[in-house]
Each structure stands twice: as C-alpha cells, then as structure tokens.
Design goal:
The chain is an alpha/beta fold. It has one domain (2-253): Vaccinia Virus protein VP39 (Rossmann fold). 35% of the residues lie in helices and 15% in strands. The protein has helices at residues 2-5, 13-23, 29-49, 68-75, 88-97, 116-120, 123-128, 152-162, 181-191, 203-207; strands at residues 54-58, 80-85, 105-110, 136-140, 168-174, 214-215, 221-222, 241-247. Strands 1, 2, 3, 4, 5, 6, 7 and 8 form an eight-stranded mixed beta sheet that branches. Strand 1 (54-58), helix 4 (68-75) and strand 2 form a beta-alpha-beta unit. Helix 2 (13-23) packs antiparallel against helix 9 (181-191) and helix 3 runs parallel beside helix 4. The chain is globular.
C-alpha cells in the first residue's frame, strides 16, 4: 500500500483497493507519504553530516529513489547501510536494486523489528557495523504498526541499549491529534484487514519514544517541518506523522523503561 501511495508499481490489486478506501477520507495521502520519505532523507543527511557512517534502516519497504545508502554515500562514499525487513518481496527487490558504490557496503536482513536481539546478533549486520562507533538507526513509519501490548516504548529502549554513545535515532509516527475522526477511523478499519493493524498515538506517547535521548532541533514536529525544505509546498492538512531525531549522549546506553509516562 505504501508503494502505491508513493506512485510505485510494486503493489497488488488488493493493495490498491484498500488504499483507495483510505483516499476517500485522506485525499492527500500521496503527499503525506512523500513527506514521510523526504524526512527520512533529511534525517540520513543530518546523521551523515554529524559524522555517522553506519546506518540501520528498520522496515525498509520497497526501494524507491533517494534510499538510505544513496543519501549517506553522497556525503561519504564509505558509508555502510543495513536494511531490515520481513517481507520477502521487499528483500528480493532490495538485493536487486539497493547496490552500494564500491567504497561503501550494504546488507539486507530478513527479520522482524519486534526482535532486536535477532537483528543485532545477525552475522551480516556484525560484518558491517562497528559498535565502537556511532550508528544511525531509522524507525520511519514502522512503530505505528506495533500495538500497545507489544510495547513500542520498551522496544525502542531495547534498540537504544545496543547503540554506542553518539548514535542517533530517527522516528516518524502517525498521530490522530487534531485529525478528522472519520479519517482516523477509516485508516484504522482498513488496516485491520491488512498484515498489521494501524495504531495512532498522541504527541505525548510519541514523545515518550525518545526517552533517554536528546532531541535535536526542531524537536518533535510534523514530518515536513523537521528542518523543512524551503521549497516544500506541503499543505497543513498533510500533518499526520510526527517526526524527530534523538541523540544518545555520552552517558552511555541506558535500558530504563522508555516511554512509561506516555502509555
């Protein structure tokens, strides 16, 4: 469905039918998807400009233009990227299309983001990622597919516990605050029939995902407003995904109860 929102061709009739149901309530959905993708690209560039040279992209999705390694390797050709997804179609396309330049490297892991221990112990990740150096972790539009019972706050805390000081985490997550109730309900209902339910959260709950991290300017904002592209023409109605980037301070890897106040 996300590929269809972005105007891609790697989707099925059932995906298109479901997406069209949501369009009836959220006609600017393609714009929202593009803004979400643009936030990922700006976050990667910010990571790279901060000196980060190794990246982990959770819930990669089908390849499109401006993928993580393409952005990172524009800043430093030696950058290394590990893509993680549990969709076999995504992994097939990734291996064919997400090809690093000769100086850098990419890897693709078949794993579920609910299992950080499996991901961080994977030999392909261990080959590319040096945990004595900062890591850029991307969790873009994936945590709203994690239910409250699956504890997204604790999940982010577990990921954070693996990362060395100086690492950055980028998160984009859907919010229902100040959004039309009919549109929220339509999105929720349609995704009940998909492979994973859709879980809108409040600003407070999303902010709690950054517990243990120092939020970079401009804080938690709608995707197009995070270090906004001056050429962006995004309409105010496109504000569905809140986004931010947090840095792990030199104090080290804390594994406390992330987000407890926001549950």
């Amino acid at each position: 469905m996300y590929d269809y929102y972005l105007g891609g061709k790697d989707n099925y009739a059932s995906d298109r039918r479901a997406a069209e149901e949501i369009y009836s309530q959220i006609p600017d959905l393609p714009e929202i998807a593009r803004d979400n993708r643009a936030f990922l690209q700006r976050a990667v560039r910010a990571f790279a400009e901060a000196g980060i040279r190794q990246f982990i992209d959770l819930g990669t999705g089908l390849p499109t233009q401006g993928n993580v390694h393409e952005i990172a390797q524009q800043v430093d050709p030696t950058s290394r990227v590990v893509y993680v997804d549990n969709d076999p179609t995504v992994l097939t396309h990734a291996r064919a299309l997400l090809v690093s330049n000769p100086q850098g490297a990419t890897a693709y892991i078949d794993a579920d983001l609910r299992n950080p221990d499996v991901i961080f112990r994977h030999p392909d990740l261990r080959k590319l990622v040096d945990f004595d150096q900062p890591v850029g972790l991307l969790m873009i539009a994936v945590l709203h597919f994690i239910t409250d019972e699956e504890d997204p706050w604790g999940l982010v805390s577990r990921y954070r516990s693996y990362l060395p000081a100086g690492s950055h985490i980028a998160i984009a997550h859907a919010t229902s605050e100040d959004r039309p109730a009919e549109a929220v309900q339509k999105m929720t209902d349609v995704y009940k029939k998909a492979s994973a339910p859709f879980n809108f959260r409040s600003r407070k709950q999303i902010l709690a995902l950054f517990d243990g991290l120092s939020l970079l300017d401009p804080g938690l904002v709608f995707c197009p407003d995070w270090r906004r592209d001056p050429n962006s023409r995004t309409s105010p109605s496109a504000g569905w995904n809140l986004a931010g980037v947090g840095a792990l301070a030199a104090a080290g890897n804390r594994t406390g109860d992330a987000g407890g106040a926001g549950r």
